[in-house]
Design goal:
Elements: H1 3-14, E1 17-19, E2 22-24, H2 29-48, H3 56-83, H4 87-91, H5 95-130
Antiparallel strand pairs: 1-2
Helix pairs in contact: 2-3, 2-5, 3-5
Length: about 130
């Protein structure tokens, strides 16, 4: 095995977070495609709260509950799509567990979220113009 491949595999293993029976890891491209519809409702809320890749850890710690409240309408969909479980299972989770899982998902994927912001905002503007 090449040193570069071994290093990549270690990075992936270290990025997995376990909360209860759930394993959370950064999105693959395929997972991002599944999560994308939920992000359309989340991106503007995160942007309004001032969350960036540079301050994500600090803001998530300081304003975690506020973030959960701001993205609540699509929070279950984000968790369900990331973990590949039914939304009903997310709805049955303990609130603390769901909040921890959701905030971990956002924290792990903030760069992907940030990079998709122009695309999502462009789609939202197109829908608004069409109505």
């Amino acid at each position: 095995m090449s040193p570069g491949k071994a290093k990549d595999e270690v990075a992936v293993l270290l990025s997995v977070v376990e909360i209860g029976p759930y394993k959370i890891q950064p999105w693959s491209f395929g997972r991002f495609k599944k999560v994308y519809p939920a992000l359309i409702g989340i991106i503007p809320a995160l942007k309004n709260l001032g969350l960036t890749s540079e301050n994500a850890q600090e803001v998530l710690l300081e304003r975690g509950l506020e973030i959960v409240g701001a993205i609540l309408p699509t929070f279950a969909a984000l968790i369900a799509a990331t973990l590949d479980i039914p939304e009903e299972e997310v709805d049955e989770m303990d609130f603390g567990q769901a909040a921890a899982i959701g905030l971990t998902i956002i924290s792990q994927n903030i760069e992907r979220i940030k990079n998709s912001l122009p695309l999502i905002m462009g789609q939202i503007k197109a829908v608004i113009r069409a109505t």
